[in-house]
Task: structure prediction
Amino acid sequence: MLSDIRPNDEIYLRLAAEDVRRSNFIKFLDDNRIAVEQTRPAIASTDVMSLIFFTYCPEKQKNHRFGFQARIESITPDQMVFLRQLTKPFVCDLRLWPRIPVDVLPTVHAFFGPEEIQVIDISGGGTHLALPESDNAAPAVGSLVQVKFVFEQGETTVDGRILRSWMDVQGLRHVEVNFIGESRIRSFIYK
Result:
């Protein structure tokens, strides 16, 4: 599956639970060594030999994210980071690792039209929302929606498609939305 990565493809390095950094793939150095661009903020020399998680979306499967465990081997003066792949790539469910810390989620506001909705989780590819109790019907699965997000640093509107809808044990309606096209949401949730 790693053969699906091409030079300049966007990848993400998860250094810690709340520290996910965007980068770009440069090249394979050999069977299990990879060169990527330095991140912003930069990976420090104190991070060398740290275990990290490397994730990416293959071009042919943009709705699926793959990842593997890696170790930071070195950082070059010309801003390349060398990684050693430690495990085989597998499909990742990043909802298990929210991009926004749980204590920050209450400060993120989302809206379907004028009505505010609760953000349960959010990533660069989609979001999990809880609809207000006064809302008796969730949009149908497959429906196109527009969600406005308001962060402390600014706001953005994202187009999406409802992937699934369900009711929890408390009777609250939930929807999972897959984002469509390019959006500015990544600049608000990734470092």
Remarks:
- The first helix runs from residue 185 to 189.
- The longest strand covers residues 154-167.
- The mean pLDDT is 82.
- Residues 41 and 134 are 42 Å apart (CA to CA).
